[in-house]
Amino acid sequence: MSIISRRSLILGACVAGLTGIGSISSASSPLEIKVYKTPWCRCCGDWVTHLQSHGIKTDVYEMDDLAPMKALYGVRNELQSCHTAVIDGYVIEGHVPADDIRRFIAEKPKAIGLTVPGMPVGSPGMEHGDQRDPYLVLMFDDQSTTVFSQYNGA
Q1: Which residue among 48, 88, 120, 121 is buried most deeply as judged by most CB within 10 Å?
Q2: Mind listing the pLDDT tens digit for each residue in 111-150?
Q3: Which domain holds residue 66?
Q4: Are residues 9 and 47 in the same domain?
């Protein structure tokens, strides 16, 4: 075997090994989110169930007053909803769909987080029969917001 073909063989084995290692580590480390909610809010619990059904591990912390958490994480008044969550250093405010959270974390944008302001009917945790109101998932930083995704309702 020539030197070039040995090197190619070794390099190929290394690349294959690294690819396998990457697959194993991403499969063994699911997303984990910390959710801060009030104890009496049923829709917050329904949102947690939505996340869990999409493979996101949840740690839930119940608090009577969420205002200090929202202030700590930079969630401006106009962006607030009924619960606040933190994942990979980002804030998730309100009824943000799990698929949007996954895409956001994968893209790693320069932002504070995502929010669904208010509590739109039809968003995860806010399902009421067939009713689906249109709503936006907003990406925000300390001064601005942009549309991350849009749901048109039914």
Answers
A1: 48
A2: 999 999 999 999 999 998 889 999 999 999 999 999 999 9
A3: 31-151
A4: no
